[in-house]
Amino acid sequence: MYLRRNYRVTIAMAQSKYRRILLKLSGESLQGKQNYGHDVEVLRAYAEQIKRISELGVEIGIVIGGGNIFRGIQGAGRGFDRVKGDQMGMLATIINSLALQSALESEGVKCKVLTSIRMEPIGEYYSKAKALELLAAGYVVIIGGGTSNPYFSTDTASALRGIEIEADVMFKGTRVDGIYTADPEKDPTATKFDKITFDEVLARRLKVMDQTAFTLCRENGLSLIVFDMDTVGNLERVVAGENIGTVVTLE
Predict the structure, then answer these.
(1) What sign does the dihedral 20-26-27-31 (CA atoms) show?
(2) Which CATH number fits domain 20-249: 3.40.1160.10, 3.40.1180.10, 3.40.1350.10, 3.30.70.100?
């Protein structure tokens, strides 16, 4: 199992640095070492980490990708109509949202799935007002379905939802521990940034998120932290303000 379960959180956190966050999770991470679908151990580990920060009083919105099931742009490459392919990808994000909701509820966490596409009773239709109402009531809110429009990634959806729910910060939980000068899996000389500005990311053409998502964050002052979600305890550490991952800011 690739999750580092032997890790022990050594910090005693009296409080979180943040009041409300938007957590972006990749669909591919949910499949673990499988080639497709969901690894229940990954879901459980994510749910445990999210539960712990929820218990600190952090209001948590979550957006999940769908790449472990279907990615629209890849479908287009295999002959699918791009719009239909993206719609299939939106449904994949809702499947993942329901899977994480189930894992969270198994941990005793109050959780609701809102969908950007009407599909009651699977999930209530998303609105900013409803999301804020649920967050204030102590629910973890998972927003599935992307933006509900084709040609927009779940990175863009997460930036948009983060801005809408007035999150203090957007966390991008990945399998890499931050932003590097190059792909560290391909370039052994790549070095990691502890902090970098939006403008420098653009100037260096670093692949952090798609440009639409990145521009939304920059123009609306939503700071971004990229960190390794698969090391157990990292979500708590980053919420506490510990210097892990890479922080992307305006200045």
Answers:
(1) negative
(2) 3.40.1160.10
Q: Strands, E, within 14-110: which ranges?
A: 20-25, 59-64
Q: Which of 73-87, 101-115, 156-170, 229-243 shows the lowest mean pLDDT across its residues? A: 73-87
Look at residues 88, 41, 42 and name the one whose alpha carbon lies nearest to residue 67. 88
What secondary structure letter does DSSP report for 109? -
Closest CA to 203 of 192, 214, 216: 214
- Give residue-wise pLDDT tens across range 171-205: 999 888 999 998 887 898 999 999 999 999 989 98
Q: pLDDT by residue (tens digit) across 73-132?
A: 676 667 778 899 999 999 999 999 999 999 999 999 999 999 999 999 999 999 999 999
Which strands make up the sheet holding 59-64, listed edge to edge?
124-125, 111-115, 140-144, 59-64, 20-25, 169-174, 224-228, 246-249, 195-197
**Structure token pair of residue 250:** 């305006």
Residue 54 has which token pair? Answer: 């929820």
Q: Domain segments of the chain: what residues?
A: 20-249
Rounded CA-CA distance 235/41 in Å is 17
Region for residue 14 given its phi and psi (left: phi exceeds 0; alpha: psi -120 to 50; beta: otherwise): alpha
